[in-house]
Amino acid sequence: MAGFCTGIVEENEIIDGRISKEGDKMIGIESSGLHSNGYSLINDMLWRHKIFYKDMPELLTPTTIYAKQIAKLKEEIPILGMAHITGGGIPENLPRCLPKGLNAFVDIKTWERPEIFHWLQEAGRISEIDLWNTFNMGIGYCLIIPKNVVNSALKICIENGYEAWTIGKVLECSNDLNRVDLLGIPQ
Length: 187
What we know:
Elements: E1 25-30, H1 39-47, H2 67-76, E2 81-84, H3 89-93, E3 102-107, H4 115-124, H5 128-132, E4 139-145, H6 150-159, E5 164-172, E6 180-183
Parallel strand pairs: 3-6
Antiparallel strand pairs: 1-4, 1-5, 2-4, 3-5
Helix pairs in contact: 2-6
């Protein structure tokens, strides 16, 4: 089964990261689990009996939908860019909301990796970089915001039942290729 949704937004209200600049901060909002990330790999591990649903009920946790949370945040703070962290993890999804000439610098030690990702890595013998390029690693949604509203953004997330962290910042780069630098992970 697959699903999708569409919508309409006024051109002047599009949030696509084009006004992001060096020094802006990134907020990571917690995921509820795997979301829709990596299930081809998970199905392969299930098929090969490396993992079992009965031992990992977290595999069936529903995906968080962030629409209401983002609407609430938009009422209070400027959001410059945002990315739903789906298949491809942070390295593939976050650069999509950055203009050319900017990179995302993410410090992976700013939040605790949920235990399910440790289990999957061990059971599937997945390399660290492949793990980050497949799964959300506990971050379901990322925001790029001005640094002066970080505390407000974190407070709003917590008040609405979401754990959130300042996970990185935006930096200029010397070329037009956008990428994510994950502090502590070999590229």
